[in-house]
Design brief:
There is one protein chain. The chain is α/β, with parallel strands linked by helices. It has 4 domains: 216 residues, Class II aldolase/adducin N-terminal domain (L-fuculose-1-phosphate Aldolase); 160 residues, L-fuculose-1-phosphate Aldolase (3-Layer(aba) Sandwich); 206 residues, NAD(P)-binding Rossmann-like Domain (Rossmann fold); 32 residues. 42% of the residues lie in helices and 14% in strands. Strands 3-2-1-4-7-6-5 form a 7-stranded mixed beta sheet, with helices on both faces. It has a 7-stranded parallel beta sheet with strand order 14-13-12-15-16-17-18, with helices on both faces. Strands 8-11-10-9 form a 4-stranded mixed beta sheet. Helix 6 crosses helix 15 and helix 10 packs parallel to helix 19.
Length: 658
């Protein structure tokens, strides 16, 4: 642990809420303390309301916010007086609690308060911090965790046995606080859940959290349970993209929706997946119950998706009779895979969900390894975990869940993705929820869509079969398979009449515009036929196929050959539910080859202004890259689900084509 408090930065804060934001972000930047929305913080302040009455208000982290990036408006302001009255009740259902919290928030539009709001209220300190520290969980998740906690902290902390979050936990903590809180108490440990610290100032509460977790780390060090075992070389992993795509299809069929399957073959993941006792230690449950919503209770070992689903249905059937309300079974597909061939695999309806599951389980592996070194890892019971997984508040979220984006869980590959039409295709697909691998010889492709989990930019010369294979392997290991292929990469050489057309130039144009696309189609076919909703290919052709121009023999012929290749593919691939359609753009001027000077020169040669030249078509409209990208994405969507072998012009209407 490192105390990151900076007095100069803290001095810039103008209020207790500003300090609350600052110290929350310090906690949030350490992923051994909190991950992806985990943990929560609060501050109690006195404010005057609109009628001049002074009230005590609890500002508590709002639902959906991450501590690392939280802002002042990410805290929900709740009336303390009502929270303390709620804490005195003997019973309060979860829906009632949520309602009471909502109607006592004093700012319209504030986020929903944390389900642990009442717990924050009953702690009689101004600042309260709550984390799920890895070091603490490695200690509490053992058979004698409570004894060890008392050995580490004496009476500096209050120790609370595991209770479901929400009102029951608040009541249990309130009773413990009333009975055991002393002037020297600086924190509270919730067994197999997390750590609370508190203080009169933001610095004090934050510093106590760091100190308490450091004591847990030191305890692990003293008992030889801190340093993770050294990992030797794991050896190379061979190509496995078709195998992974088949696994993804099986998972998607079990889940009843497309999924992203992200693999992590780093040495730690491989060593854990290949450990001799992985079948025992990995099947004991998550490090903290919060994780179950992202990782499910248990990871899948190997590739037996049907076996995993059967076991999950049996788990549901065993535990649902004890539920107080009707429960809707979640999909029985895994969210985490441990496999000796590729290490760790994580699943989600989006690349972000898969990335969150990966981060959570990566930390879980550390917790399990340290707990085993301490004497043996033990999670909560199956019954307790089921209660959390099927918590009424989470079931309510399921019922309220909106319709997912069109391409949620689906994966696209776009060539020539660094600029122009290719970049526009990437943006259109991302907007519809797809994960996208962009290929381009231009290094800018690696950052073209920014740093986001649903985009992978790969620098790739598509004329190299070896480079294409490596790029597809990278894409499938990142996302799990392939559903859509946009063949856009191409070159438009300088004009030359046939009598002076050089052989090498002809071959260069055909290598990019035709041969590379044949390679891509051939290499992608085994992946596309495993797409859960059927594969889709969109070929970016050209107006020159129907209406060639003088001086463009190589370009026109290569695009015509590519169009014919697409037609044959539509005929051959329909039997395995892959549809292939072609777009023929023309006069798309917002691309790299059309500089301002070139546009002015071409427009002047026609006696037109630049704006007139851009709209020199039947509809008198400008065709942009985004127009082509949007249509390419739509061709992959449900509107065109029964169309294949089509050729669609997108040129504003060209008289020669018409």
């Amino acid at each position: 642990m490192k105390n990151l408090w900076d007095s100069a930065e803290a001095a810039k804060c103008k209020s207790d809420l500003d300090l609350r934001v600052y110290s929350s972000r310090l906690l949030g930047r350490d992923d051994t303390l909190v991950l992806h929305g985990g943990g929560n913080t609060s501050v109690k302040v006195r404010e005057r309301n609109v009628v001049g009455e002074e009230e005590e208000i609890l500002y508590v982290k709002g639902s959906g916010w991450d501590l690392e990036t939280i802002e002042a408006h990410g805290f929900a302001p709740v009336r303390m007086a009502h929270l303390l009255k709620l804490a005195q009740l003997e019973t309060l259902s979860d829906p009632q609690m949520v309602n009471e919290l909502a109607v006592n928030v004093i700012r319209a539009g504030a986020p929903a308060p944390s389900v642990e709001t009442i717990l924050h209220a009953v702690i009689p300190h101004r600042f309260v911090d709550h984390t799920h520290a890895d070091a603490l969980l490695a200690i509490t998740n053992t058979d004698d965790g409570e004894t060890r906690i008392r050995e580490i902290y004496y009476d500096d902390v209050i120790t609370v046995p595991y209770v479901m979050p929400g009102f029951e936990l608040a009541r249990a903590c309130a009773k413990k606080i009333q009975a055991e809180l002393k002037p020297t108490t600086i924190g509270m440990v919730l067994l197999k859940h997390g750590m609370f610290s508190f203080g009169a100032t933001a610095e004090e509460s934050y510093g106590r959290m760091i100190s308490l977790v450091e004591r847990a780390e030191n305890y692990l060090k003293q008992r030889g349970a801190w340093e993770l075992p050294p990992i030797g070389p794991m050896g190379p992993i061979g190509p496995m993209r078709v195998q992974l795509a088949a696994l993804r299809r099986d998972i998607a069929e079990t889940a009843a929706f497309p999924v992203i399957v992200s693999t992590d073959s780093n040495p730690k993941s491989l060593a854990f997946a290949r450990a001799g006792n992985v079948r025992e230690i990995s099947q004991r449950g998550p490090a903290t119950p919060d994780h179950i919503l992202r990782t499910k209770r248990l990871p899948m070992l190997g590739h037996d998706v049907n076996g995993y689903a059967t076991a999950y249905r049996e788990y549901f059937s065993r535990n649902v009779p004890r539920a107080k309300e009707t429960k809707t079974m979640l999909d029985p597909a895994p969210r985490v895979i441990l496999d000796p061939e590729f290490g760790l695999g994580t699943i989600g309806r989006s690349a972000r969900e898969a990335a969150i599951a990966r981060d959570l389980y990566s930390h879980t592996m550390d917790v399990i390894t340290r707990a085993e070194a301490l004497g043996g890892y033990r999670a909560l019971s199956e019954e307790e975990l089921f209660e959390f997984e099927y918590w009424d508040l989470e079931q309510a979220k399921l019922r309220r869940a909106g319709k997912p984006p069109t391409f949620a869980g689906e994966i696209a590959c776009v060539t020539g993705a660094a600029s122009g039409i290719g970049k526009a295709c990437v943006e259109a697909l991302l907007k519809r929820g797809a994960a996208v691998a962009g290929l381009d010889v231009d290094p800018l492709v690696t950052t073209g869509a920014g740093q986001r989990p649903d985009y992978l930019g790969v620098e790739c010369d598509v004329t190299s079969g070896e480079a294409v294979g490596a790029a597809l392997e990278h894409a499938v290991r990142t996302f799990g398979g392939l559903d859509m292929l946009i063949l856009n990469a191409g070159i438009f050489p300088a004009g030359a009449p046939i009598e002076s057309l050089d052989d090498s130039e002809w071959r260069r144009v055909f290598a990019v515009n035709l041969d590379a696309n044949l390679t891509l189609m051939r290499e992608c076919y085994p992946l596309l036929k495993l797409a859960p909703r059927g594969g889709r290919v969109v070929v970016i052709g050209s107006k020159n196929v129907a209406a060639p121009g003088p001086g463009a023999a190589a370009y026109s012929a290569s695009k015509a050959a590519l169009t014919q290749l697409a037609r044959v593919a539509a005929l051959e691939w329909g039997a395995v539910s892959i549809r292939v359609n072609t777009l023929h753009p023309n006069a798309v001027f917002d691309t790299g080859i059309w500089t301002d000077d070139v546009l002015k020169t071409r427009a002047a040669s026609y006696g037109m202004s630049v704006e007139e030249y851009k709209r020199n078509n039947v509809l008198k409209t400008e065709v942009r890259s985004s127009d082509v990208g949007e249509l390419a994405a739509e061709l992959c969507g449900p509107v065109f689900a029964k169309t294949t072998g089509a050729q669609i012009p997108i040129d504003g209407g060209n008289e020669r084509v018409i």
